[in-house]
Here is the input.
Amino acid sequence: MMLVVSHLVKKYGSTLANDDLSFTLGVGEIGVLLGPNGAGKSTAIKCVMGLLRFAGTIEIDGNSNKSGTAKRIMGYVPEMPALYELLTVEEHAEFIIRAYRLDKSANDYANELMERLELSDKRKKLGKELSKGMQQKVSIMCALLPRPKMLLLDEPLVGLDPHAIKELKAILMELRDTGTAIFVSTHMIDSVEGLWDRVFIMVNGRIVAARDHDTETLKGNESLEDLFFSITEGQG
Amino acid sequence: MRALSYLFLTSIKNYLLQMLKKPVLIVVYALFAAMMVFAMLPGGRSVGISMDMTPVLRAGAFCLFAFVAYSSISKGLKTGSTFFSMPDVNMLFTSPIRPQAVLLYGVVRQMGMSALATLFMLFQIPNMRNLLHLSGTGIFAVTSGWFILLVCAQIVSLCTYSLTAPYPQRRRIGNYAMYGLIAAMVAGLGGYLLSRGGDMQAVLDYFGLPIIDYVPLVGWINAYVMGLIAGDTGKALLFLLLAIFFPALGIVLVQRTNSDYYEDVLQATEQTFVLKQAVKDGKIGAKNTNRNVRAGKSGMVGKGQGASAFFFRHLTEQRRTGMILFDKGSLVIIVGAAIGGIILRNLTAKGEIAPFFSCLIAVCILAYILYFLTVTGKFTQELTRPYIYLVPAPEILKLFYSNLTTVIKSLTEGLIAFTILTLLAGLPWWYIPLASLMYASLSQVYISISILTQRILGGSGSKVLSTILYLGSAGILLVPGVVLFGVLQAVFYFSGQQYVFISYLAAIGYNVIISILVLFLGKGILREVEM
Here is the structure.
């Protein structure tokens, strides 16, 4: 398993944001964390990324998620794109190449990603000169550049134009085919229809349902949306 | 480290390159540099106050340092501080770079920011020379002490949060220690005054006691400054080392005991990011509202309707934040007024200054402090929301009511400050209402100028640029009022001092007219919406 989360508990003061979450994600699987606003999805993603302290264990490819080894194979697209205002697009790529100690082939990959995400003509632009959507694209490029084995995306489609959405979905499918485990958090059900291998529905800090696309198909003609509403509308 | 040095150096390089593309910015910075050089040049004769200002400087610097340190450390005990930005969280914290290296990078960058903040201190050089009689070494001592304080306070704040946040027990101990120290200081002062008699000299002597030098951080830095001024380099160095050792120890402790500090800075970084985004989007007066505020009693205060509903909504909000009439700035003003009152009383008693000039000096100094403390208030926050534009009520009423809490606050603040000052310094009774009104009206001028500045620059202005523009336009708009006030003061000084209050009335009138005019010039602030 690429991602193993066991009994994850995260509290902010007396507020229980993540209540005993346990789930796994295998190599080459796309897992989707669905839930209404305030369900605790972003907190869970941040815990997995090692940005928050928590109780329980999180392992990435057999290593603690906070270890250098784990970080080397993880990529993260945050909910709020935030770029270095005084670095150009291509300098962001250069910075990531240095931070992850990537080899020279990473430059070619950076060019390819910029091309696919329509960033090539913006490569000399500073972070602060970019629109929110463009910043999101750079954020995606930075996350993909180290060729992570485990990619986490927090509401990745918000703010993207239709071309970028299509391209990102294509990239995710390609990555899945090459064995990357992908974990996407979103509240936009439409955006992940047909994309997922495993789905986890979160309400009030808990995973209240999990489905496997291949082996445990949805009942009859039940869509992801039907499942989501049947669960969430019955819960507080 | 290669990635971090790349990030650091490339950011600086791009900043400089960007400046080259904007000639206007170069001109503004050149003017700024020229103003600083001008400020640093030896001035003319100092004003004719011959008393030794070292005890005043020692006490004043201690109180100022203590205020900054208290603000930082109490923030560290509550919400935490950060010297990281959101991109650091998204890209550095998630990268395989060691957290210790990332922390070091944050500290170095913070030192750079503090150095920039110290630049503004250089504008005080003429005051340091003229009012405090400081030499070049003295000015260096105060400026470097301020820089060291800013860096140390920020580091101590971060370390405090990182070491105490996950442990309520430690946080309690931290709070007890901080407030215990403050209580001990105040009790010590009270005891000293009781034994020595409650005059100003006793207050100043208290801050000169050797034990005060050993108050953590604040006392050490103050002792460094005063050591340099007194030419006692050994003492200065000793306390400098102590002051540096303290935050350094904090960093080592954080590294050794809590290398997992990312969560500790995450919340503060996110809050800062949201705030910066709001300002960038032109949301002038955006504030950090993420404090622990309880809803408490439900329902609006009062019964306002139409435009006055804005005023009562502000009161409802202020009931929750507990900041109806005062904030930290008010405290500075009131304490400043009390200290000023005592100094003026002493000077008047010695016959070194006439009451006429005491009135003038007091109002000028408080207006000057207000210049740096004015917050844009509820009105500017109102402009960031759609309702002020949408509510069907006369614009003038909407302007009036949405600004009313700020007017009440500055008027109350002024009344308290000038009542204390007048009573302590023995000034004429008419001075209280007129100086308070002048103070409140000036606060309105400052606010309208800051709105105008933001309107001109929109969301694109850099902080430095908007500060310079604010200072510049404030200078221009205030000059006619200052000239009017100055001329009338001179006229009444020579022709009959009993009518000097007319000069205050004229200045108040000018302030009111100019602030209304600027608000309407920024126009149609409520009609031509550009949110």
Remarks:
- The mean pLDDT of chain A is 88.
